[in-house]
Design goal:
The chain is mainly beta. It has 3 helices and 26 strands. Bound molecules: 2-acetamido-2-deoxy-beta-D-glucopyranose (NAG) (9 copies). The site of one 2-acetamido-2-deoxy-beta-D-glucopyranose has 5 residues, from strand 5. This is DUF642 domain-containing protein.
Length: 398
């Protein structure tokens, strides 16, 4: 049994590392505390019995939903007969003028709150899919079931809610928005499996000028979802569920549990084709030289082909081609550039729209983006030493 023994040797040698890993998971556990009550709608409304065979039950004053306040036409939905839901339990359908809301208390320290939720269409024969507006304290997003990116009938999305703290009440609101439809075949959205995560403000580390370059700070993955989380366009890095990185088009936020992730627990897969991707601006010293390292690959989801990723770092724009067998490849590359202005753009854009043989939309994976100054001195002078030296010079001068 060489495997367990090698693990124990590794553990003995890496005591500080395993401690920091433990600490990291402790923090993660804390960060993903579930803030919402009845977040998967498995607590039944008052008059619905667990063995109810009725697929849709209209909520009203006598039939309320634990944890939630609602207005308009809201139905309690049970999976089965044409309705597929995450974990096959229950969901709610937001019908005409529907609005549901819940509030929760923020932690003591200010943190960014990010929502993961699942959206499903209510039927197959829809001429139009009504939209759902998701609002948090500082941000609002509109979602609709316009396209299937995966195999499941439902899809999970990520949405930035806002910055809160000091026991502030954070309100989360879902509202339906009807669309024009000639006949009566509008499908209303079903929502299910909500998860709220608080992430701390990111601080620049010595080992990477780029914030969230490893894509570890984003929405929390649903434990039973095998299809990652879709992130729709979020053109402001401040209001992006992928913290500090703007999203163009649609990307899939993938977890290492279900996909091939080059580094850490998460990466991004650019799924919506031409010019979709991620973008940010970094404040750099004008005229200085920098190095941008990154890993490109595929998610091990049977996505085959040649993907072109256009990488921009300042004024340098370069195409990289990945040849993928769909079996989880990863290749490190880098770009050297000089910062010509203080706001330096960094972006990764896909030039390829791909689908697997099963029809799943897929594309190149980007991970582990590291930006560092390439002419930084090997021996860094500590600020305290620098101040002492300056003082000494000043004293000697006089
Ligand atoms: C729910 O149950 C209560 C009594 O338990 C009854 O008065 C009420 O009419 C019921 N509502 C519905 C919608 O069935
Ligand atoms: C549902 O279950 C309850 C108890 O769990 C039982 O009393 C009732 O008869 C059941 N109803 C149906 C329709 O099976
Ligand atoms: C709720 O229950 C009350 C009392 O049983 C009844 O008068 C009322 O009509 C019910 N409301 C609805 C919407 O069913
Ligand atoms: C929903 O919003 C209303 C109005 O803002 C508020 O009174 C109510 O308490 C909220 N419901 C929940 C469950 O937070
Ligand atoms: C959808 O339409 C097809 C053919 O038009 C029909 O056979 C099927 O029963 C419809 N499904 C639903 C859920 O209405
Ligand atoms: C269309 O919807 C309206 C309002 O919901 C309903 O009264 C009408 O019967 C529906 N028509 C058809 C053809 O389903
Ligand atoms: C995940 O799936 C398992 C088995 O299907 C189920 O027991 C569990 O409750 C699910 N977890 C969540 C968070 O829904
Ligand atoms: C990268 O490839 C795309 C598609 O072939 C092309 O449109 C684009 O101009 C190329 N960019 C660079 C920097 O060569
Ligand atoms: C892809 O498959 C081909 C033939 O099956 C093989 O030669 C090649 O090494 C594979 N490439 C990768 C990156 O796995």
């Amino acid at each position: 049994m060489p495997f367990p023994s090698s693990i124990s040797i590794h553990k003995m040698q890496q005591q500080p590392l395993s401690f920091s890993i433990f600490f990291f998971f402790f923090l993660l556990g804390f960060a993903s505390a579930d803030y919402l009550q009845n977040s998967d709608f498995e607590s039944l409304p008052k008059n619905v019995t667990g063995n109810s065979s009725v697929a849709f039950v209209l909520l009203n004053e006598n039939n309320t939903m634990p944890g939630w306040t609602f207005q308009g036409t809201v139905q309690y939905v049970t999976a089965g007969r044409g309705v597929t839901l995450p974990d096959n339990g229950h969901a709610i359908e937001l019908g005409q003028d529907a609005k549901v809301n819940q509030s929760f208390k923020a932690n003591g320290d200010y943190a960014n709150y990010i929502l993961t939720f699942s959206l499903a269409p209510c039927g197959q024969n829809c001429s139009a899919n009504a939209k759902v507006i998701v609002s948090g304290p500082d941000n609002q997003g509109i979602f609709s079931f316009k396209q299937h990116y995966g195999k499941q009938a439902w899809q999970s999305y990520g949405q930035y809610l806002g910055l809160s703290g000091h026991e502030e009440s954070v309100s989360l609101v879902f509202e339906s928005q009807s669309v024009e439809s000639e006949d009566n075949s509008t499908c209303w959205p079903l929502i299910d499996s909500l998860l709220v995560k608080a992430v701390d403000k990111l601080v620049q580390g010595k080992d990477n000028i780029l914030l969230n370059g490893g894509f570890e700070s984003g929405p929390e993955f649903l434990s039973n979802s095998t299809e990652g989380i879709l992130l729709d366009s979020a053109l402001s890095p401040v209001e992006s569920p992928l913290r500090q990185l703007a999203v163009v088009g649609t990307i899939r936020y993938i977890d290492s549990k279900h996909f091939s992730v080059p580094h850490g627990n998460a990466a991004v897969e650019i799924v919506s084709g031409v010019s979709a991707g991620i973008h940010t601006e970094v404040s750099l010293a004008q005229g200085s030289a920098y190095n941008l390292d990154f890993t490109l690959g595929d998610a091990n989801n049977a996505c085959e082909g040649d993907f072109i990723v256009e990488v921009q770092a300042g004024s340098v724009v370069q195409n990289f081609t990945i040849t993928s067998n769909g079996t989880g490849s990863a290749k490190k590359s880098s770009i050297k550039f000089e910062a010509v202005s203080s706001a330096t753009p960094i972006s990764f854009s896909s030039f390829t729209s791909s689908q697997t043989k099963d029809g799943i939309f897929c594309g190149p994976v980007v991970d582990d983006v590291v930006l560092l100054s390439s002419n930084s001195p090997k021996i860094a002078i500590k600020p305290s030493i620098l101040i002492c030296l300056l003082l000494l010079i000043v004293i000697l001068w006089y």
